[in-house]
Amino acid sequence: MVAVAQEPLTERGRRSRERIIEAAAAAVAERGAGGCSLDQVLEAAGASKSQLYHYFADKDDLVRAVIARRVGETLDCQGPMLSELDSFADIRRWFDWLIAQNEKLGCPGCPLGTLANELADRDETARVDLAGGFDTWMSYVIEGLARMQARGELVEQADPQRLGHAVFASLQGGLLLSKTTKVPQYLRDALDASYAHLLSFAPPGPS
Amino acid sequence: MVAVAQEPLTERGRRSRERIIEAAAAAVAERGAGGCSLDQVLEAAGASKSQLYHYFADKDDLVRAVIARRVGETLDCQGPMLSELDSFADIRRWFDWLIAQNEKLGCPGCPLGTLANELADRDETARVDLAGGFDTWMSYVIEGLARMQARGELVEQADPQRLGHAVFASLQGGLLLSKTTKVPQYLRDALDASYAHLLSFAPPGPS
DNA sequence: GGACAAGTGGACTAGGTGGTCCACTCCTAG
DNA sequence: CTAGGAGTGGACCACCTAGTCCACTTGTCC
What we know:
The structure is a homodimer of 207-residue chains. Chain A is mainly α and 207 residues long. Chain A has helices at 11-31, 38-45, 49-55, 59-83, 88-104, 111-119, 124-150, 160-181, 185-199. The structure holds a DNA duplex (30 and 30 nucleotides).
């Protein structure tokens, strides 16, 4: 029997574990997974070493919990907007929300994208978790596009999957360029182009 | 007079400095700027601490030299292909080269993009250097699109700058998705969509 | 109230980190 | 040949890191 990280068995333990993940998520967002220390996390969480190692096997395990948390947050936040995505107007509304958020928060980049870039070639488990997060996130859009196609809002030749991939690449790339240059316009240009591309698959209108 | 990193004054010194940057570039590519230690770099370079601190003020200064090196490499490598960019065929050729490279190298992501993602919010100088690199890189494409527009290969309404930004977002995003999922197809989907979007600005043909 | 497990505090360790320092070699100019 | 600065080797330091360990508290069940 190998000693593995333990799930908390009491309400008190559950809250301690949550506090640690929360503080770790903040620290990772600010300094990256490799750049933040457990001591910093624990001080912010008001917890001790023994608590950390009571709930997590090691630092990588904690980082994985942070990833799961971030993936969950992202899907919880955008899921409602995306799961009912059903028209060009819905897509435009989503894009405009992304652009507004990015500008409002000062071009922080994508939490998932940032983690992916740091961890993809250093922690295989983290990479798979993040790839899964991207995949689920993208699937909302792909399914929305498929619904639009079924309803005749997209021509037959459109490939919802490839279009969804392209939309996400534009989003991630736009966020990275904005973050690097601190110029929000890059994301706008990226998503505007992506939207125009999607529109080109609208069936010829009666106008 | 503040003591600052010194440029080597002899050929021998220049070669030492080069060796250190080369080893540092490799280490940074493999483990990230924050994840590689000076001891590792120096061992790989066959150099000593005193050499490092003879040529660089501190670790950040070395990282900045690595960034300058990578920016230079990227522009040197793609510059020839991009500075004469003049037609849709040239763009397609560039895209295909990017896709092929990405697949051949096992989806390593963009060296500049990876550094940008790690350093953008941790080292302001590095951020500005990387933003400048992106900017120069992008300007090749924007100027190419402007040439195409001047020659009538792009309609008047096309905005070369915004199109260039969108192309780069697709590239960076596609590289990140490929790196995270280890699936080269994401970059292909991203660039195919970007290319189709560009093509939509071709003037109506005689066909 | 006592037994027992979950949860906690925090001192401690072993190894690594960036950075300093100084004695030394190498090279060149005169 | 010699002087002096550029270049080099590597011991050394203070600090920080992830991770260990054990005595202790808290809460619950009988």
